[in-house]
């Protein structure tokens, strides 16, 4: 069949696409930025579109024309510059369902989440519930799947955070460490979607996808630490106020475009526990959902997982250090502008040009130091840091080559800072 997967390059969506291709279906994927996905999955017909802008049935009709099944694996955790929960979870889904009914789409598979509730104070759960309601109220042959905490070989968002916390040196920090959680393998989610697409599940079915037994967050983190091959370490519960503080900081970073899984919405979801009912799935399927231990055993960890886990928490530290370094450098240059200009004048640079050069350099330093904190500007800011540093080294070598041998090493110390920028570029990608 012809299957359209929304959010096709996400943690769940990419696994679904791989399974549907293996099943022999013709698959199209939809997302905002599909360039990387096109390179990774050339067998898929990719559609570049922002769901939050497709809010009328007429917007969706060209997209679903000729499609047999739609699988909605798109979603966002919290409102931000790139995400509008009500638009993505509710309004776009309402319009999409109407378009599917008009276009004669046979089936609709909605990937929802444990804990949806239209009355929830958490916009993530309430908007998801409203989207589910639009699907359930349609004339389509629908299936609504509500996974627990999805564990996948890929790491993004919460799954990346689990690995990073598990790899923390010396001990494992955890907020709400005793909250119960039921996991599910992304392969099991893909199996459920495969069956729904094929029509082998009962029609008009809304069902949880969770392992049979709940376990605490502390137990899950310990399991991930063992999976990474690291020595056992004590899980240390963090005070709730620290969680609220981190959530507030993450929410602030969200306004700058960073999608941290530590935002207040995620912490609120964890506070309520992530648990569902495993029995209904067992009643309709001969494929029991595997427990966490089996899920981890099916995706053995190697050195790349340990590198990722250790670098994930280092990434914000790296970016914060670079921002602080360049901001302070620019501020000091402004405060001591005359002294800096005198150094250039002593090397034969005209006084006016020296003053302008110091002022321009200081402003440039502060601009890139601030820009690196804004997600859409981070990459160009890092590249600009490299260009400024190389220019600084070249100019210093021409004007004052003896600085390379200066006792405090002002030029030599620039090299490690340059290397840190390169590391930041290497770990900048979110998925």
UniProtKB/TrEMBL annotation:
It holds the Pfam family DoxX_3. Keywords: Membrane, Transmembrane, Transmembrane helix. Residues 7-194 form the NAD(P)-binding domain. The chain crosses the membrane at residues 316-335, 355-374, 381-399, 411-428. It comes from the Bacteria. InterPro entries: ComplexI_NDUFA9_subunit, DoxX-like, NAD(P)-bd_dom, NAD(P)-bd_dom_sf. GO terms for molecular function: protein-containing complex binding. The keyword Repressor does not apply. SUPFAM superfamilies: NAD(P)-binding Rossmann-fold domains (SSF51735). This is SDR family oxidoreductase. The lineage of its organism: Bacteria, Pseudomonadati, Pseudomonadota, Alphaproteobacteria, Hyphomicrobiales.
């Amino acid at each position: 069949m012809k299957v359209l997967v929304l959010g096709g390059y996400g943690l769940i969506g990419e696994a679904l696409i791989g399974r549907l291709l293996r099943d022999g279906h013709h698959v199209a994927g939809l997302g905002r930025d599909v360039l990387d996905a096109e390179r990774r999955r050339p067998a898929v017909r990719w559609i570049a579109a922002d769901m939050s802008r497709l809010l009328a049935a007429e917007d969706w009709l060209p997209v679903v024309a000729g499609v047999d099944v739609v699988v909605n694996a798109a979603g966002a955790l919290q409102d931000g510059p790139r995400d509008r929960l009500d638009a993505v979870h509710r309004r776009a889904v309402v319009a999409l369902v109407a378009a599917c009914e008009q276009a004669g789409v046979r089936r609709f598979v909605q990937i929802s989440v444990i804990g949806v509730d239209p009355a929830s104070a958490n916009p993530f759960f309430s908007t998801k519930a409203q989207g589910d309601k639009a699907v359930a109220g349609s004339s389509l042959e629908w299936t609504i799947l509500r996974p627990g905490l999805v564990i996948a070989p890929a790491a993004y968002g919460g799954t990346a955070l689990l690995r990073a916390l598990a790899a923390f040196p010396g001990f494992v920090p955890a907020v709400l460490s005793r909250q119960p959680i039921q996991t599910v393998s992304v392969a099991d989610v893909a199996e459920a979607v495969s069956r729904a697409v094929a029509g082998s599940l009962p029609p008009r079915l809304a069902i949880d996808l969770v392992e049979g037994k709940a376990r605490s967050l502390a137990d899950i983190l310990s399991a991930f630490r063992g999976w990474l091959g690291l020595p056992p370490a004590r899980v240390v519960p963090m005070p709730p106020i620290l969680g609220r503080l981190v959530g507030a900081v993450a929410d602030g970073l969200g306004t700058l475009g960073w999608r941290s899984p530590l935002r207040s919405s995620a912490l609120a979801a964890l506070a309520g526990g992530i648990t569902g009912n495993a029995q209904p799935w067992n009643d309709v399927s001969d494929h029991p959902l595997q427990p966490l231990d089996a899920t981890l055993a099916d995706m053995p960890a190697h050195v790349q997982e340990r590198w990722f886990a250790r670098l994930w928490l280092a990434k914000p530290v790296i970016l914060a250090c670079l921002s602080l370094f360049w901001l302070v450098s620019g501020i000091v240059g402004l405060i001591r502008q005359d002294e800096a200009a005198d150094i250039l004048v002593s090397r034969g640079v005209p006084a006016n040009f020296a003053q302008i050069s110091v002022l321009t350099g200081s402003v440039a330093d502060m601009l890139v130091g601030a820009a690196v904190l804004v997600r859409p500007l981070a990459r160009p800011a890092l590249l600009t840091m490299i260009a400024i540093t190389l220019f600084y080294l070249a100019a210093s070598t021409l004007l004052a080559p003896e600085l390379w041998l200066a006792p405090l090493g002002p030029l030599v110390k620039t090299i490690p800072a340059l290397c840190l920028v390169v590391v930041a570029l290497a770990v900048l990608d979110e998925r």
